[in-house]
């Protein structure tokens, strides 16, 4: 049993590192591990992951991003509100649907977003340039390092969609928030990550956790141990990401999503 608890702590730490790097809650690591190695059902793994993320696990990472002025506080607050409103809806959907369908839908979504992050067309142009000596076509720099002046409806809408995904998949919502901010609203990658972590700092998944708890699907000891690992790992993940170029972080995130997506689609 001590070995199992240590393993859970390590999983939480790894999930925390990825959380700090990519602005995710960590559920994309926690949920598959609970299913594969601890034989949790999909809904049990989702609920336990969501419960772990109720703790302010990214507090040190958020402080790092805030120190670098890489959090859009207004957007983070509105996204958090959206998450709070709809996480219960996502949990209800997850309880009603078969687990395999849930995993495949989630995997397909992540596969699509990974394509947007890796930008394989641009990678191909760079490879061709190195091979032939011809400069690749210039790419217009659209990412911005300052928060854009968008309507409050935009971040609130992102939060509403992310809340459903959070409740369904136990992911915290960052796998929706970051791609939306970067891919659709031209946020700089690091600004999007910091804003996502800021939105996830509050216990926005509480309605979803209560919904799962009413069905007897929570494992509180595992969730608490995961949360401890997440707190420790998120700080280190933030330090790694802040030391890398935004484009590199963006492409690493895309590669990471490919592996997670394939795992969920093919099992």
What is the structure about, briefly put?
The chain is built from 13 helices and no strands. By secondary structure, the protein is mainly α. The chain starts with a helix and ends with a helix.
Walk me through the structure:
With 267 residues, the protein is mainly alpha-helical. The chain starts with a helix and ends with a helix. It has helices at 2-22, 27-37, 42-52, 59-67, 73-96, 99-118, 120-132, 153-169, 174-184, 189-200, 206-214, 220-242, 246-266. Mean pLDDT is 82; it is low at 139-144. The protein contains 13 helices and no strands. 76% of the residues lie in helices and 0% in strands. 51% of the residues are buried. The chain is globular and about 50 Å long.
What key attributes describe this structure?
267 residues; mainly alpha; 0% strand; globular
- What is the helix tally? 13
Distance between the termini: 26 Å
* Helix-strand string: HHHHHHHHHHHHH
Mean pLDDT score:
82
**Biggest sheet statistics:** none
Rg, Å, rounded:
18 Å
The percentage of residues in β strands lies in: under 5%
The helix content is: over 70%
Kindly name the structural category: mainly alpha
Beta-strand segment tally? 0
Overall shape: it is globular
The assembly state of the depicted protein chains is single chain
